[in-house]
Structure formats: structure tokens, C-alpha cells
Amino acid sequence: WMQGDHSIIFYEDRNFMGRHYECMSDCADMHSYMSRCHSCRVESGCFMVYDRPNYMGNQYFFRRGEYGDYMSMMGWRDSIRSCRMIPMYRGSYRMRIYERENFGGQMYEMMDDCDSIMDRYRMSDCMSCHVMDGHWLMYEHPHYRGRMMYMRPGEYRSFREMGYGGMRFMSMRRIMDSWY
């Protein structure tokens, strides 16, 4: 694991105005630091941001750059409430995706990006997965579009029980060290 420096600065108002709060790791509830957040700047590293506390709700991937009005860019009604630092990783990538919950139905093992599980595997749904190696982003639509979910190594038995019942994940991509 390569840790390196990670830093994201949250601002109360659009275009980096108002009070700010700098975060260099995970933050489960930003409400204790600021009541609202309408812009942010990623100084270094990659972060996942969430519109609910405790890494729940809608999520979005931020890499280094400035996000002066992210809510209109992302179509969010609520501002960021928690964020998770994504550690830099250099190594192999491996994930098994399953058609059904609890690792049921068809299974495919992936080691690289897949812009459409329908095209590649004739799979119309993915309801659970096991991430063995690397950090991944899963997307609602093919070609890495729509809502997304950050997956780190672990077993994910039911996306529905995680609060993603209405969503399908149709494409997956590796979070690469070159993105940092």
C-alpha cells in the first residue's frame, strides 16, 4: 500500500468561499465540522464523497482538481456529508461479479476494466461481488456513466441490502495509480 499525501478541502459556499475544512483521511460525518458544503478542491489523492453520513447514499469519485459547484455538476440535491480517502494501490486487480445475491447465478472474474457486462458476458444484472485485489468503481450504466459505487477489497453479498436496490451496475473500472 502506498499512502502518499491525500488532501481535500471542503468549502461552505460555491466557488471556494466561506469557511473551509481540510480532510486528509476518512470522515464519517462532516456535519460536526461544517453545516453545509457547496464546493471542494482536491489538492492531492482521490476521494469518494457521499451525500449521507457514514459513507451511505449517492457517491461520487473526485480526483485532483477544483469543483466549484459540484452539486449542479452531479445533479445532487444534498451536499457532501461524508468522504472516504482512496489509498493509492499498485498491484494486480481481481474481482468476481455475480448475477444474483450471495454469489449466486453466473460468475465472471475480471482483471481489467469492463465497459459493458452485457456486451462482454451477456449479463443483464450484477447483484453481488467479491473484490480480491485492487480498488474499483462500479457504474449504473455501460461506458462508465450514471451513478457509481466505490468497491474496495472485500465481499459484497447484496447490493440491495447495502441500499442500492434500485440500481444495476453495468460497467466496472479499476482505480489506477496513474489517476493520482
Verbal overview:
The protein is mainly beta and 180 residues long. The chain has 2 domains: 7-86, Gamma-B Crystallin, domain 1 (Sandwich), CATH 2.60.20.10; 94-179, Sandwich (Gamma-B Crystallin, domain 1). The protein has helices at 70-74, 117-121, 160-164; strands at 7-13, 17-23, 39-44, 46-52, 56-62, 65-67, 82-86, 94-100, 104-110, 128-133, 136-141, 145-151, 154-156, 171-174. A 4-stranded antiparallel β-sheet has the order 2-1-3-6, with no helix packed on it. A 4-stranded antiparallel β-sheet has the order 9-8-10-13, with no helix packed on it. It has a 3-stranded antiparallel β-sheet with strand order 5-4-7, with no helix packed on it. Strand 1 and strand 2 (17-23) form a beta hairpin. One of its GO terms (molecular function) is structural constituent of eye lens. Residues 45-87, 134-176 form the Beta/gamma crystallin 'Greek key' domain. It comes from Xiphophorus maculatus. It holds the Pfam family Crystall.
